[in-house]
Amino acid sequence: MVLGSAPSSLHSSVYDALFVHGLDGVLITSAYGCVLGANGRACELLGRTEVELVGLGPDGVVDRRDPRWREALGIRARDGAFRGVLRLRRGDGSTFPAEVTTAPFADGGSPRAYVSFRDVSTAEAEAARAEATTRTAAEVIDSLEAISDMYIGVDADWRMTYINAQAEARLGLARDEVVGEDIWARFPALVGTPFEQTYRQVARTGRSATLEARYDEADLWCEARVYPLRRGGIAVYFRDISERRASEQERERLLTAERAARAAAERAQRDLAHRATHDELTGLLSRAGLLQEVDRVLAGRPEARLTVAFLDLDRFKLVNDSLGHGAGDRLLSEFARRLAALAGPADPVARFGGDEFVVVLVDRSAEEAGRFAQEVIEASREPVEVGARLLVPVSVGLATAPGPADLDVLLREADAALYRAKDTGRERAVWFDEQMHVDSVNRVAIENDLRHALDRDELLVEYQPAFDLRVERICHVEALVRWRHPVRGLVGPQEFIPVAEETGLIHRIGELVLARAVEQAGRWAHVPDLRVWVNVAPQQLVDREFPARLAARLDRAGLPAHRLGIEVTESALVACSPAGEVLEGIRALGVAIAIDDFGTGYSSLARLGEFPVDVIKVDRSFVHDLGTPRGEALVAGIVTLARAIGAHVIAEGVETLPQLTALSALGVDSASGYLLARPSAPGHLPLTIPTEASFRWRTGLHPAVARVPGTTASSTRR
């Protein structure tokens, strides 16, 4: 239908719909571009009133800088219409893009044109934004695919929105399979783990977080960085840190090992330092530790008064030998505990070795030190349970310094006082005095002179016979050592043998006496059944090689073993644990064994059966008691015991004829003493009974002994 032929009402409706109420701006222009009319929308878009627009030429509404206008007018003239995007000018001079449709028409024979346009700046912007968004999204995806981290995007409903290729490959997934799925349903192993806790925390708080954890399903140690998204949801970047974790664990293991090694080294150093200054058994200070501690005390208090208490457990060796070293160790530990409890906190307490202890009392008066010593003695009388209830008393030597203290001097003085305490009855405390100093100096002098005497061959051996009370002959000769001092003259063994035993010189002396006795016994080979006896010190019985050396010596001298006898004291048997083994070795050679000074040791009868014994020598103290019921009963008991074990009995120290008569009547086999013969050099020794006229028969003697000397004398012997 042609609009021109339409009824006027329809013409009016079309006009209103397209021009008056149209959504697009409409301009009616002349053939030359002057505006003849404008609808309301055109005025709104161009920012002018219709009055302002009417009469404006093309330059009033067209942006002449847009070269497409010229092309548009050419196209309209050629094709009869144009449609495209051109720029128009607003009343304020600004321009905007518009989608323009224009075509010419005739109005009553006058050429006219209409221009219909709409603002496309908003659509263009949206398109540009959409393009930019698309481009940005592509760039983001490129970035997510290019990074080395694995990535998973999750929306506010916990549906996965994206997963990059690295995550696909490491987790063994396909993107198309998981995008859109609920993350907790797809990865149920995450539930209840630090991953879930962190993801939900970030979604709830909107604050990013980082965690390191292990995802067992993928055998993956990972570091996850979780970020909140503006539209809701989270972005999870995670990387495999297994190698780093292994490296860190190895480094931590090495650091831990290094710290442990360092700590062990420090502990070992402290332990070494502690062991260097402390006794391992009791935990008390050692000798070296005591010296250090006293030096520390004196460094802080140079004028401190020091008193040294030197302690020794009486007869402690008996505990070791009878109950074993374990019991002895427990006894020492208990005594050390009691001693430390009695000492003051500032008084160093040390174990000097064996059963010797030292306490250094700091700034104590003589009365306090004496009271302390008595407390220690009383404490030692309390029984100790070591598998048996033991009472092991203690002897104490005390020494103090009136002026600046010299610990070495105090130790020597206290040690000397301790020996005096033992010599005078044990279980007592004795203070050092000047006489002890004199004795100490004398012992030192004796030691020095004795060393020179051994080098200069000043020691000699004399022999004392034992007369058989049953036959008229001498069967036993005892070798006795003497010292011919160049200044002091003849020195008895009672003066230098104790020093030799303390200093270890007894080994050299013992070997010297043994060598000479073996040689002399060889020279007496013509005397029937004569046996030479040699004293052996306790220290020699500790040496397990002693029997072998003795055998070699007998072999070199060509002396039958039965012509030699070894004398040991009963106390030596108790003191020396290896004594039984050594004596068995000596007895196996055929050398006889005698117990000297029998009855003066400890546990005599109980231990006698443990050792091989050929001869029992009755101590001179029992001989002196003869004439009393007790003395004769003791000797009779010893004879009975000897008969029971098949041993010969020799009585020593016989000085009177009544003693000799009583011994013979009691069944003693042999006797020696000054009544019968004094010790002498081998050339002056009587090997048969003298026949001088002064000898006469005495009743009660063995019939074979017809004559004895009539004088008395005192005897000294080793």
From TrEMBL:
Matching entries from PROSITE patterns are given as: EAL, GGDEF, PAS
Which PANTHER family does the entry link to? Answer: BIOFILM ARCHITECTURE MAINTENANCE PROTEIN MBAA, DIGUANYLATE CYCLASE DGCP
Domain EAL stretches: 443-693
Q: Which residues form the PAS domain?
A: 136-181
Q: What positions does the domain GGDEF occupy?
A: 304-434
Q: Which organism is it from?
A: Geodermatophilus aquaeductus
Please identify the protein, giving its name as recorded: PAS domain S-box-containing protein/diguanylate cyclase (GGDEF) domain-containing protein
Q: Which Gene3D superfamilies match?
A: 3.30.70.270, EAL domain, PAS domain
Spell out the NCBIfam families in the cross-references: GGDEF, sensory_box
InterPro entries documented for this protein: Biofilm_reg_signaling, EAL_dom, EAL_sf, GGDEF_dom, Nucleotide_cyclase, PAS, PAS-like_dom_sf, PAS_4
SUPFAM superfamilies in UniProt: EAL domain-like, Nucleotide cyclase, PYP-like sensor domain (PAS domain)
Q: Which domain of life is it from?
A: Bacteria
